[in-house]
Amino acid sequence: MNEEPAMFGSKPAVRPEHRREAVPRVQGSRKFTVGARNEQEISELEPEWAEFCDIRYAVAVNSGIAALELALTTLGIQPGDEVIVPALSHVATAMAPLYQPAVPVFADIGPVSWCRPDCRPRARWSR
């Protein structure tokens, strides 16, 4: 993994030959989910993105909470299951399990790494 992000001069994670045209087309169409009227670009983006990620399916959603809900459903989270969520996050992180309806269980995070309290950061980004 790069020590610095590409915006600070490191090599980009996605090589130019792997960049797709569908994302700019979708952004230009201003139709971002399957529910949009005449959403041809989304229908083309989903299989293209799935191929890029080397997975069978990709689904465009309209928000982060919808993505979290879909992920929990895909994982088979059932009513009453406990889902560990970070204590310091957007409210959607804890709300998504409630839609299952599962039980969000808050976990503390480390003040430096933003991960487990005992986790040490590997590298720091600097300009």
Automatic annotation (TrEMBL):
Required co-factors: pyridoxal 5'-phosphate
UniProt xrefs under Gene3D superfamilies: Type I PLP-dependent aspartate aminotransferase-like (Major domain)
Molecular function via GO: transaminase activity
Keyword terms, alphabetized: Aminotransferase, Pyridoxal phosphate, Transferase
SUPFAM superfamilies in the record: PLP-dependent transferases
Region (Disordered) location: 1-25
Feature: compositional bias, Basic and acidic residues: 14-23
InterPro entries associated with the record: DegT/StrS_aminotransferase, PyrdxlP-dep_Trfase, PyrdxlP-dep_Trfase_major
UniProt cross-references to Pfam families, sorted A to Z: DegT_DnrJ_EryC1
Signal peptide annotation: none
UniProt similarity note: Belongs to the DegT/DnrJ/EryC1 family. L-glutamine:2-deoxy-scyllo-inosose/scyllo-inosose aminotransferase subfamily.
Name by which UniProt lists this protein: DegT/DnrJ/EryC1/StrS family aminotransferase
Native organism: Streptomyces orinoci (Streptoverticillium orinoci)
Lineage: Bacteria, Bacillati, Actinomycetota, Actinomycetes, Kitasatosporales
